[in-house]
């Protein structure tokens, strides 16, 4: 018997093609995720059922053990696959977070995978966590993500999900094929605020995108422990930018725009676009279509005044508020 080391952790993930909660059996040779975490990526969440008895003392009795779920937290870095032979390795995590994927070619035959919101046909994933001596299988995962991009740092991408509880079993590590590590620091992001990618290019300290996909727990008298699983039921995406304040309002007047945008159609409202990576190699392009600016308070950093621009991702077109496009390097 030995110790269990948190660094010795392997995660695989795969979309469930056979229906919700049907184990997709992700393999270490084809479905390994590249994570940067503390290793405790899965935790059991148990709901206990307490009934206080009437007796001659205050002594309690045993609680009922109700539904169990598995909470999954995966921390990684936003990165491309690095070639156009298949979808980005992040694909199952993005799709379980309520994004649909379409693929095609653009820009002189460069192949792309474009992820956009969906409001039906949600896809669940199976996640396996090999944790130095045992295997924890988590089918039926739905999740969400947060992207945090600080200037000069790595773009941290964190997924939070929940799935069905299955008791872990003893299992040795399989032979793993890891994704290519193509991570790049946050630099030259080409962020622009303005209609259709043309407009104001500020000095940007940070970009924070909270996807905010929500899920409901489905109680069911016909299921074990009275629990059927999860169902995605809402999203509340938000974008926050920290940008330097200029000594003039002539380049961009956020004060006036906050008031005026209520009367603007989507085509006249500001978009927010940026690109991680370059067009020569692989790149990841973000576009927030006509988000609503909610506030722009000041803060101080290193003696300089900054705006904290908070946007609600919304749109008049169904599922049109956001896209994330992976333009992969040609093989």
Structural features, described:
With 331 residues, this protein is mostly beta strands. Helix content is 4%, strand content 46%. Strands 1, 2, 3, 6, 7, 8, 9, 11, 14, 17, 18 and 19 form a 12-stranded antiparallel beta sheet that branches. It has a 6-stranded antiparallel beta sheet with strand order 4-5-20-16-15-10. A two-stranded antiparallel ribbon has the order 12-13. It has one domain (9-47, 64-327).
Number of helices: 2
Query: What is the rounded distance between the termini?
Result: 46 Å
Low-confidence stretches: none
Order of helices and strands: EEEHEEEEEEEEEEEHEEEEEE
Q: Tally the structural domains.
A: 1
From the alpha carbons, calculate the radius of gyration and give it in angstroms: 23 Å
Summarize the amount of helix as a percent range.
under 10%
Number of strands: 20
- Rounded average pLDDT: 96
Keywords:
331 residues, mainly beta, six-stranded antiparallel beta sheet, 20 strands, globular
Short description:
The chain is mainly beta.
Would you spell out the secondary-structure blueprint of this structure?
Elements lengths: L8 E7 L26 E8 L14 E14 L13 H5 L3 E8 L3 E8 L7 E7 L1 E18 L5 E9 L4 E3 L20 E3 L9 E7 L2 E7 L7 E9 L2 E7 L9 H7 L10 E7 L5 E6 L3 E4 L2 E4 L2 E9 L9 E6 L4
Antiparallel strand pairs: 1-6, 2-3, 3-8, 4-5, 5-20, 6-7, 7-8, 7-9, 7-11, 10-15, 11-14, 12-13, 14-19, 15-16, 16-20, 17-19, 18-19
